[in-house]
Write a structure and sequence with these properties.
The complex is a heterodimer. Chain A is of the alpha+beta class. Helix content of chain A is 29%, strand content 20%. Classes of the chains: A alpha+beta, B alpha+beta. Chains A and B meet through α2, β3 and α6 of A and β4 and α6 of B.
Chain lengths: 333, 210
């Protein structure tokens, strides 16, 4: 990645004070507009001259989507502009959704968590460096994947869900939100829509140029958490090369409802192995009615990696996924 | 004769400090021009492009109101260094990785290279220059001197700001917690052990002053 130490190329900057104004501007500029939240995804693109939007719509002043409030259904309603630090340190989140607090607290560094937002962490683009270096790959509108060839450096790429593109979703909070059955509230000039977290993230088979359902003009405004499971156990683990700053190589988020020593219901979600957080439906079905033991975990790990296909340099992700899924059941607390 | 008088009277009115400040300001303008005009072929389209216009804004920096012309696409670190002459804030990677540009916004740490200056209007910006008060060093600054915490010290302002942010969050961190809270800053000399000594000393000093 070329590091260019000079000014970002100019753009028109808008700083709307409300969601209505923001979506109107987004509608007006379409794919020439760029929504700026914390900016930790944005500025790399701008500084490298790979994305050069005509207009940037900065949400810094949109206070109505910042903060955490009690939700209608006994859960929490989190504004998309709430910083990751505020989520990680919020008493209500720590108390009822420790899985999310943990995931938010493991993102990057303190400075990035102070500025980065939950919405931005969820909708951030993939970190595939061929794509982010401006190579004209499928995801960038071209007709080749540079990461999937025999000679590519693809240690960080997909083992499942690839379709021409082999990039992965880098978010830490996304798998936690899928495991918590969160809902994403999206606003555009044509109104408000709500998506289940599982449906919010899409693979290249649906649209190779997007990571989420958001299209130009769509703004993710709120993340709604349903009432937490009573007495649930949870587990989150993020494996990365460095203990700080780094994106996950594989991360796992799990929620288990255990009664009488037996798993009644479960959510097992693995991220950074596919272009979207992978909810392991087959694993969830297989562990229902069993004890959260080492043996169950072992079986779950085997099921989790069925059908996984490694690229040249990432077969370690298969072993890692197998073991993380095992731990997420055995060690959930 | 008249000219000499003018020169003399002006000379008399200039303090050494003002003269040095003037040189720094001139240098800052020159180096900012270097940043602006590096892509010389780009200059004409840049100036005519929509959004290249500067806007006069008021920033609250180190407790002072500073009026400054800021292009919409300028980052806070650039404004601080090249417009306001506050060169204590360093630019290392310019990619939110190294932490050399760490400043406080309303008391919490942020990477100055990765936020637009226009996004911080109305917020309280604190840089390394704003830590000292009435000639007394901030406990973290004193700890840096006491412990000789840094080797080349390019990362020192960023680390110092992170330590200030750390202490406002956790006044008595363990060594491990301090390492965690300072994980957003890099030292390429690899002087982390002494930096953590500094952090522990800073916590001690700030507790004894409180």
């Amino acid at each position: 990645m070329a590091v260019i130490r000079d000014m970002i190329p100019p753009f028109e900057l808008f700083q709307p004070a409300g969601v209505d104004d923001a979506v109107r501007l987004m509608d007006q500029y379409g794919d020439q507009g760029w929504v700026l939240a914390g900016g930790l995804d944005t500025f790399d693109w701008f500084k490298d001259r790979i994305k050069r939007p005509a207009a940037v719509i900065d949400l810094a002043a949109v206070d109505e989507i910042r903060g955490i409030a009690d939700g209608a259904s006994g859960g929490l309603d989190i504004g998309a502009m709430t910083s990751l630090t505020d989520i990680a340190e919020h008493g209500g989140v720590q108390g009822a959704y420790p899985l999310l607090a943990e995931a938010a607290g493991l993102v990057a560094t303190p400075q990035i968590r102070n500025q980065g937002t939950l919405g931005g962490n969820i909708v951030q683009d993939t970190r595939c460096w061929y794509y982010r270096s401006g190579w004209p790959c499928y995801r960038a509108g071209g007709n080749i994947c540079y990461a999937g060839t025999r000679r590519s450096m693809n240690r960080e790429h997909c083992i499942v869900g690839a379709d021409r593109c082999v990039a992965v979703n880098p978010s830490d909070t996304a798998p936690a939100l899928v495991a918590l059955d969160a809902e994403m509230v999206v606003v555009s000039t044509s109104g408000e829509r709500t998506f289940a977290a599982t449906d919010f993230f899409i693979g290249p088979d649906i649209d190779i140029e997007r990571m989420t359902v958001l299209e130009p003009g769509d703004l993710l405004t709120r993340i709604v958490l349903p009432a937490p499971w009573e007495g649930a156990r949870w587990y989150f683990e993020k494996i990365r090369d460095r203990k700080s700053w780094d994106f996950s190589l594989v991360s796992v988020a799990s929620m288990l409802q255990v009664q009488g020593g037996v798993i009644q219901d479960a959510r097992i979600v693995v991220n950074s192995i596919a272009p979207y957080p992978v909810r392991m439906g087959a694993v969830e079905a297989a562990i229902r009615g069993r004890e959260p033991s080492d043996e169950t975990g072992q079986m779950a790990g085997e099921i989790a990696v069925e059908g996984a296909r490694a690229l040249r340099h990432n077969d370690y992700k298969i072993a890692l996924t197998r073991n993380l899924v095992k731990r997420s059941i055995r060690d959930a607390a | 004769m008249l000219d000499t008088q003018v020169i003399q009277s002006r000379r008399g009115g200039f303090t050494r400090r003002k003269f040095i400040k003037g040189v720094i300001a001139a240098g800052a303008t020159a180096s900012a021009a270097g940043y602006l005009f590096r892509e010389s072929g780009m200059l004409a389209p840049m100036l005519s492009a929509q959004g290249a216009v500067e806007r006069l804004v008021t920033l609250t920096v180190n407790g002072q109101q500073r009026r400054v012309d800021v292009p919409k696409h300028e980052t806070l670190a650039m404004t601080l260094r090249y417009q306001l002459g506050l060169t204590g804030t360093k630019l290392g990677c310019d990619r939110a990785e190294c932490g050399a540009c760490t400043v406080l916004l309303d008391g919490t740490t942020h990477y100055g290279c990765s936020i637009l200056t226009h996004s911080v209007l109305g917020r309280e910006v604190t840089t390394i220059e704003g830590l000292e008060s009435d000639g007394e060093l901030h406990p973290v600054q004193q700890a840096v001197i006491d412990e000789g915490g840094f080797q080349c010290a390019f990362c020192a302002p960023g680390f110092t700001m992170s330590m200030v942010g750390m202490l406002s969050k956790n006044p008595s961190p363990s060594r491990e917690e301090a390492a965690e809270l300072l994980a957003g800053n890099l030292c390429r000399c690899g002087d982390y052990d002494k930096i953590l000594n500094t952090a522990m000393r800073a916590a001690e000093l700030s507790r004894s002053r409180a």
